[in-house]
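Worked example (supplementary).
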Amino acid sequence: MRAETPFVALERVSLTYAGEGGGTLAVEGLDLAIARGEFAAVVGPSGCGKSTLMKLVTGLAPASAGSVSVGGHRVAGPLKIVGMAFQNPTLLPWRTTLDNVLLPLEIVAPHRASFRRERARHVERARALLATVGLAGFEDKYPWQLSGGMQQRASLCRALIHEPELLMLDEPFAALDAFTREELWGVLQELWLARRFTCILVTHDLREAVYLADTVHVMSARPGRIIATRAIDLPRPRTLEGSFGPHFVDLVHELRGRIAAARSEG
Amino acid sequence: MTALLRAEGVSRVLPGPQPVTLVRDIDFALGAGEFVAVTGPSGSGKSSLLYLLGLLDRPTVGRVAIEGRDTAGMSDDELAGLRLARLGFVFQFHFLLPEFTTLDNLLIPMRRLGRWGEAEREERARALLASLGMAEAADKLPEQLSGGMRQRAAIARALANDPALLLADEPTGNLDTRNARIVFDIFERLVAEQGRSVVVVTHDQEQAARAPRQVRLVDGRIVHDSGA
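After joint prediction of all chains, the assembly is encoded as:
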């Protein structure tokens, strides 16, 4: 594979959801390229097809037209190299935090076959990962004994435990209060700086996008396509204080203008 | 007779500067093949009681025994093993993992239990889905199912390891009336045809009335138990 080949590539992708009257055109003519190790954010007005984009990339929904490829391979079904975290709770209430984090290793090849034999090693890794997000000492708690922010920290660990090449985040912090959300930006940035997985974050929070991403893509109103791509040239590690600096504020303002334009189009 | 599940003098107090009592003085015995609805105002301790009966939480005082075995001295791992083999859980939210098919979601607890080989696991999982009218859902993602189907898939997962007892916390809270009825139809069948026990926490009085035994909680106490 040539170095300049994007890790995630969508070319002229359309997706129509079946339904009455010919269905709903969710995205149309969608082009997107994300380099290996890049942190990309996708923002847009609500209902623009951001979640559809997530499903296309992960193979949860097949494209009606165009092509989707990840790691140089065309996506034809659910991908195994992806970690995911969502706004909704997906930690199983009857499993401890540790057992929830271990879950992907029980399901995903190649770990599945050796999971029982190598459990001790996996447990050690899961504990270390939980410690990096500030959850040392909470391994044996159940999700319902944790705050919302702690649950999302654990969800990030679950998404990363099998060391996926691609992390997909679908508004993972949207249900949290502002302070907790901002705290978790720092946690996520730290994980990414240490591991440099390719990441796609779907969010409607422009400050979140600018704080975290190398590149922010703006989607149009439905049917969604990318109408603007903005490189975020802020130095890392980024800080909360920095998010009140003039350049950061300008970037957010610029993106807000693009989205306003996208909304009035639709 | 040995009860399937027995709680004796159970109270659960959250410690702290101002301790909070979630449930108090609970005496409750559940036989095999019983269908119990637990109702009560919000904050009355219904979910807390379900977590205690489901061995997800430990009493502050009192004891919980399952199939005659006192759980007080058991380690967390032993409790997890008991839950995996003997109990199934359903909640208001389905908790299906979105990146895996319905079949894979059912296989998770089965693989963990390890009672059957992979081929038999898959055969059992498919048969279980078919018995709930969802054969065609096996290879679909949760995303591709309706809300009612998702909750039925969650019930199928709870049944995957052939549990003696199903514990459900507001399982119809996100469903319309028709799908709520389907869920309770399933519970009735599990009890009548398969001899399992079901304990369901619900605020839906109409559905609750379908259970032969009614337990009502107020302020953490059982104020009425039609089967006691």
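Two points are worth noting when inspecting this output. Residues 89-159 of chain A form one domain. Strands of chain A lie at 8-17, 24-34, 39-43, 65-70, 73-74, 82-86, 166-170, 198-202, 215-219, 226-231.
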